[in-house]
Amino acid sequence: MARRPMGGEEGGEDAVEEKEGEILTPEEQQAAAEKKKKRNQKKRARAKKKKAAAKALVWEKAATLSCGRESRLVSKGNLGKGELLWGTNEYYLSVLYTSHCGTHCGACYAEMGASKRWSCPVCKSFSLCEKCDKAEVKEWHEHECGLFCGVPVGMRQGDTDYLRFVCRFFAICCHGAPPASLPGSRLLSPTPELDEVFKLRGRGKSRTDIRFLDCLSTNEELQSEDFRSWCSNFAQLFERHVKFPAGYTVSDLADLLMRIRTNGLGFPCSDKHGTLGWSLDLYASFLDHSCSPNCEVTMDDGGKLLVRTLTDIQDGSPLLISYVDVESRTPKERRDHLFELYRFRCSCERCESGK
Ligand SMILES: [Zn+2]
Ligand SMILES: [Zn+2]
Ligand SMILES: [Zn+2]
Fold first, then answer.
1. For strand 295-299 and strand 305-309, is the pairing parallel, antiparallel, or unpaired?
2. Which residue intervals make up region (Disordered) (predicted)?
3. Domain limits at 273?
4. How far is the CA of 152 from the centre of ligand 3 (A)?
5. Of 4, 77, 68, 14, which Cα lies nearest the Cα of 319?
6. In a domain? residue 142
7. Rg of the chain's alpha carbons, rounded to an integer?
8. What is the rounded average pLDDT of the residues 18-33?
9. Structural domain count, the chain
10. Ligand lying closest to the C-alpha of residue 339
11. Positive or negative torsion for Cα 15, 17, 20, 25
């Protein structure tokens, strides 16, 4: 009778394959047990993912955008700890940091390693993994790639985060939504709530869908003189080389750059590498900051942005995330960092109590 590897079970998906009458050496037994362990791990991960997806609430059911000068997201109903409020890549505009462009997939943001299949020979800033290497993704990339390569070489050297961000946004405005496998397929979808915020911010009714990012604040008065002039120079230079979307002006672009800085989420992210890039999301960018947050933003394997509650949250309470790693900094360092990066002075409960 054949010996069974340690811990082997008969039948079912997890049974270790074994031929009738075959005797396994200890090495083979070990290898078979390893194989089984890996299979079980994968199975558990699949089940976990399925459960999370089933629990995913549509954002609108979990949160509402309070309209006003300081628009923010507040909970709709009582929320429990650990609830998944949002899990989609449809509403965000994001790019990888320049340093991750060659190592991470430009569509799903996974680390590629051996699964790297394609690297754009033209811009050399966009790669695709095995799963995302599809004709429609490459075709869509050509739009942003053309804009990117249209600017002077000097603008494309070094850190190209802002440049690629703007190229992606312009490509969406001019050529429509990217394929579903790329983030941002519903970025320009107007919603009544956003329209309301838009009107309250004194911009009247949006002329075109591309104005929805204008709902986010620029914090212009708090930006440094240097950064303001950098934004303005960037926008002017860009206009000399690239065709703007209809109705979009140089000053609109300078404002967009300030919005990116003020509202950009450090996202996508990964457990291993931390923040991989940044994004603006029509909803998640309205999550205010607190040094003792009640929500967190993470990412799943498919590059989707997930917002989860960290505590129980009462109906009507603001949904808050932390824009900084709170524990690794002193209170002063934390506040200085927040001002430097996002241009606001934190006055959350924790900061007020000096902790
Ligand atoms: Zn991918
Ligand atoms: Zn390219
Ligand atoms: Zn604070």
1. antiparallel
2. 1-47
3. 90-282
4. 41
5. 77
6. yes
7. 24
8. 75
9. 1
10. 3
11. negative
CA–centroid distance, residue 163 to ligand 2 (Å):
13
Instruction: Give the separation between CA 172 and CA 185, rounded to whole angstroms.
Output: 9
User: How far from 134 is each of 141, 143, 144, 169, 345, CA to CA, in Å?
Assistant: 11, 15, 16, 21, 45
143 in a structural domain: yes
248 C-alpha to ligand 3 centroid (Å): 36
Neighbours of 225 (CB within 10 A): 7
Q: How far is the centre of ligand 2, averaged over its atoms, from the C-alpha of 147 (Å)?
A: 9
Q: Give residue 96 CA to ligand 1 midpoint distance, Å.
A: 12
* Side chain identity, residue 132: C
| 157, amino acid identity | Q
How many A from CA of 296 to the centre of ligand 3? 15
pLDDT tens readout for residues 199-243: 766 554 444 556 778 878 888 888 899 999 999 999 999 999 999
Q: Is residue 298 part of a domain?
A: no
- Ligand 1 centroid to Cα of residue 107, in Å, is 5
CA 179 to chain centre: 16
Residue-wise pLDDT for 284-315, tens only, equals 888 889 999 999 988 888 888 899 999 999 99
Contact predicate 257/248, CB 8 Å: no
Ligand nearest to the CA of 105: 1
What pLDDT was estimated at residue 100? 95
Centroid of ligand 1 to alpha carbon of 138 (angstroms) = 12
Domain contains 345: no
